[in-house]
User: Fold this.
Amino acid sequence: MSTLTTGVRFPTDPSGSRSTGTLAKQVVADALASVDPSAAARIHRIKDWRKGYIEPFTELVAAGVHDAVAWDGVARAGLDSLQSRMVGAHDVDGETVETPMKDYLDVVVAPSTPGTETITGTAEPVQTLSIPYRGEHLSGAALRDHLDRWVERGVIEPSCAAALRLVQDYPDWLSLPGRAMLVLGLGSEMGPAHQLLRWGADVMGVDLPTSPVWDRLRTETDQFAGRLHVPTDASGAPGINLLTQLPELAAWARAAAPAPLTIGSYFYADGGLHVQLSSAADALVVDLLSDSTATALAYLATPMDTFVVPADVREASDAALSARKATDIKKIVGTLTGGKVFHRNYEPGNGPAVHDALVPQQGPNYTLAKRIQRWRATTAFADGHTVSVNIAPATDTYSVTKNKILANTYKGAGAFGIEIFQPETSSAMLAALLVHDLNVGRPEVDVQWQHESSGAASGGLWRQPYLPRTALPVAALLGTVKR
Assistant:
C-alpha cells in the first residue's frame, strides 16, 4: 500500500484501496494478453496471488523463447500497462492531482533544481581489475585461473568469464572515459559506485537524505580517485527522494551531468515500495533518454527469477542428473516424492529451456519490480540504446539475511553446488561486467533472451540438476541445522 501524499502511488482499485496485488495482476494480464488473449481472465481468477504468481511470471518468459516479436511485445505491453496505471500525485492550486506515470514528467515541472556538491577522491586510480574473494584480492593470472574454476563448476557462464578477461586486457576502460554514471541507490551493497570511484569514474549518486552513505563516503575520499556528484537541498544537505522528488531529480540530472549518463538502477525496498521505485526509475529513464541526457542503461537481474537458458546449459544440467548413482539420496527422495522434492531442473528436450528459479519467499512485488527493469532493458536494447543487464549471483546481502528462510537457504545451498557470493565480490564482478558492456556493447542476438543470458553469473543455479523450488527447501533445512 502507498501512504505517500505526493509522488509515485499505486492506483485505486474499485474498492478505493491502493492494492499492490491488483496492480500486479492487471499488469501481468496485460503483458500476457499480447501473446495470449485469454490470459487476463485466467490471471484474475487466481485467488491467492502470493502463491499463484509464479506460473504467470514464468509464462511471460516462456512466450518468447522462439519468438523475438513475442518477447518484445510482452515487454512493451507490460511497461505500457504499468506506467498507464501507476500515478504520480502532485499539487495543483492546493489540490492533489494524480497523473499517469507515463505522462508525469511531461506534466509536472520541478519547482527548483537541486544544488550539487562534488566530492573528489584523493587516491590514485586503480588501473588493474581486482576482485575481492574470501579475504584475497584476485587479479592477473590468479583471477583468470579462478574464472576457469568458476566456469568448470557452472558458477558463471563462459561468456561471463570472457567478458571479465577482456576488461583485464583493457584496464583503461575502468574509469569509463567520456561517460558519467547516475547511480539510483548509491548505498546499495550490490551497486557499482564504490568500484567505479576507485577506478576514477564520474558518479552521480542518488539516495535518500537519511542514508548513512553520505557521511561514509565523505570519510573515504582517500580510497577513491573519481568524483562523486551529489544532489543537495537549499541548506546544502545531500540526498533526494526518488518517489517524491522525481521532477527535481530529472532537472538535477540534466543540469549537473558532467558527461552523457548511464542510468543504473540498484535500489531495493520491501514490498510494494520496490514496485513504486521501479516505476519512478522507469519514468526517469524514459525522460532522460528522450533528449540524450542519458545514452545508456544498466540493470542487475536476480538469479531467483525466470530466464531462458541456452541449449548447452540444459545439456549440462541433464548430464548432472544422469550421472547420479542409484544410491544417491536425492534421486531416491525425488522418486519417492514423485518429483515434489528434487524435481529435475529442465523438462526433457533439446534446445533452449526455461529456467524457473522463482520461490514464494521472494514474493510477487519483488518479482514485478525486477521484471519492470528487465522489460525496459529489452525495449531500450531493441530501440538501439546501449544497455547493460547482468544476472547477478545469489549474494549474502542484508536484504537476504534479514529474511530467516532465505538466510538459511543460502547457508545450505552449497550442498547443491550453488555458491553464495559475498557482497564485495558480487559488486566488483558486476561493476567490471558493466564496464565491459559500456565499452563493447551487448552481443547481437536473434531473440532477446540471448541478450539477458550472455555474461550470466547464476552462482550454479542454472547448471545444477534440480528445479530450485524443489531443492532449496532442503537447503533451508540444512542451513537451519548449520546455524
About this structure: The chain has a mean pLDDT of 93. The radius of gyration is 22 Å.
